[in-house]
Amino acid sequence: MSASQNAKQHPALIQAQSKANYYVGQLDKELSKYQAFNAIEQRTQVPKAYAFLGGVTLLFVMHSFNTFASPVSNLLGWLMPAYLSVKALETPAHNDDVQWLTYWVVFGFFNFIESLALRIILYYFPWYFAFKSVFIVWLQLPAFRGAEKLYGSVVKPMFANVQAKASTNAYATSE
Hints:
- This protein is an all-alpha fold.
- It has eight helices and no strands.
- The protein has two domains: 1-65, no CATH class; 66-175, no CATH class.
- The protein is elongated and about 95 Å long.
- It starts with a helix and ends with a helix.
- It comes from Phanerochaete carnosa (strain HHB-10118-sp) (White-rot fungus).
């Protein structure tokens, strides 16, 4: 028996392959809930779990080189949210509309702040775009409700403060 055949029959390798297959199956089951992944699988004949894992790996590699980090984080921030926003507008329920409107307000606020200080941020924080990508995904995922949390704790209080000052100034100038 050759060394490669011996390695293939090692119990640890067999157990690792079994666990990997289990998790890929679970991922496939979860991705089956989304029509977009089902359509990708039908068109490409690549299992949706492998396509998803390949996409995540590609993003990771691109971020690892940090060359494409800015475009990738912008793609994450715009592409899927734009698609899901249009989809939300087409449904009669308003919950998804509120979720995506809140996302766009927080995302826009964040991008405005970022535009004011990007050079400084990049000087002190070289892997900024990798962390920004994780932050954007956190904002988007309904399980975390990141956009709603930031809206309630940061954006809304700042807006209320600015609005109060504006109404006070308007009242003072009208006297």
